[in-house]
Model the fold of this input.
Amino acid sequence: RAVALSGASGPCVSDAGLPFGAGTSGTLMVPAGTMKSPSGVGYYVFTLNVTSAAGGSPLKSSAATKVWPTDGALHQVAIFNSGDSNFVPNVKRTLASTVTGAVGAVAYQWTTVEGDVDVTLIQYTLTPATTDTLVIKPGVLTGGHAYTIRLTATAGGKQAFDQVSFVVKKQPRGGTLYISPASGTATSTSFGLEARAWEPGEDGALPLEYQFEYRAPVTNSPIVILVPFSQSSDAVSLLPPPTSGGSWQLRLRVRNAVGAETLQTECNGVMGTCSVPVATPSYVNASHFMAETTATVVTDVTTMLSSGSNVAAQNYINLLLQTLHSLPTQSPNGGRRLLALTVDQVAAAAYKCGTLLPLLAATLPSNLAADPEALSLAQGAASGLALVYTVAEETNDDCTPHASTMLSTILAYISANPLAEADATVLTGTSAALSGMMASIEVLYNEGIVTQARAQTAMADALAKLALLKPVVGFGLAVGEAVQTVESTKIATDTQ
Done:
């Protein structure tokens, strides 16, 4: 068959004595049957020489390639890009392949031909470089850089390859995050959040979208979304009591029209992490807090849901849950670690399972994948469930059906969505919720609040959901991050 090569120095001579391999055009056609067999020549080197007189002085450059002739048919390799045609740094990239016409077993090897980093190294991938599919972690590719990735397939003693070349889209740049005030009190201070002077990075990649987040100042702590992606560059939000260190780390994520994102972790022109001190509210105790908020939370959340602000409703419910856990109980001993349930624990269970969890369940659509804020809703719901079950003794059986339905919805979304499958907040929240749900069932059974049959049914449901979660591996959120398995701490539980 004829092979098209770009230029040559030569000429070469075929077995039949026909010259080939010379020309002055941009494309060189090598006629079928002109190359010698492998027994007569190891390989050919084709060189393209380019000369330009532009600007008045001659310029020269050259490029060369090797071609190895082979006897008989050669198998064909094809690489397919699974996903959006835009390559962006913040999304994992899957390159799949097919090999046709191979004789015997096929050995695969991915290599980086061009790029600022060898993306096929194990610390940058979620799959080995010796399989038919290569999955590159988010955060590995660099915006504005060109890459060429090759797959070589060896079968029957012969090698064939295919390769893909692409340029990674540039992320937004140049802007800042501004927070006002710089400190405040949980549940009462309204913090102003503003993204200033951001540019798209990639030409024409407008409009920009902005997402405001926070996390505890602890390594690998989960990320909580305050305001999901929207074109609004400013927002106002409350913050819950800090879980560690008396402050929250606030962050801004900016996304352009091609999907490339930039994460901003500094604010107010200060170098370093954006740390916002937040004081615990001045409620007397948990009972006082529950009495004050029970009367208003249903109205507040219902208003948010009716306006389509489901993520805001989740944030408000989760803020109340975190505030509850930060306050002292009314009784001197608290009762939180006693097996026998106290009045405070019973009251907290009624507040969580009778008031807050039904509202949280209402924020989660049954067809989660179809919602444009699906990932944010999955994060908020999983985090909220984990907060509900933080203390098993502060739950009752009213929680169980709501939690079961929500977990089914989240797990279905995880199984169908690569972003959720790689999201640490969704996975850790779901795992913690399942663990807490099983601990709650144990407490309720041991206290004689539910029957043995009820406990067995609920525990079987939780274990079935755990079985769906266990195969999910590899967060892949940062370069060099180790692959890890997400499992509950209560895999085996005696329901008898």
